[in-house]
Amino acid sequence: MLNIIVAMTRDRVIGRDGKIPWHLKDDMALFKKLTVGNTVIMGKTTWLSLPDKFRPLPDRTNIVVSGTLPDQDGAVVCRSVDEALNEAKGSDGEAFCIGGAQLYKAMLPLADVLHVSWVKKDYDGDARFPDVDFSKWREVESQDLDGFTYRRYARSE
What is the CATH T-level fold of the domain 2-155, as seen in this structure? Predict the structure, then answer.
């Protein structure tokens, strides 16, 4: 099963200058709760944006998809999405794509579940989540939290 986990604005903004443009403590706690004990798959920019003390993300198998990044301590570097997904199959728990924009775009057609934190405020950004046809997804959980609404969607087709 492939999960995508993302926090975004209603305009699909997910980042600015390689960073998340908001700080939502409850969203970070939810991200940790959902991903600990599982495998996280991320692109090079997302990997490099993690603070040193959280790189690799603890208690998770970290997979980085990059054609140029050398080997990294605490992470498996894969050269393609297919290679990353094959690597994740042999890892613990479920696989979670955690970004960024290019990896979300590549993995969205393959995803089974979307975990979306809909940020309530608007932010400017230069990275956006790809368009989603939500008619092909059904909402299976919703929770209103401080600064965002968490919704879990399952593919319905």
Answer: Dihydrofolate Reductase, subunit A (3.40.430)
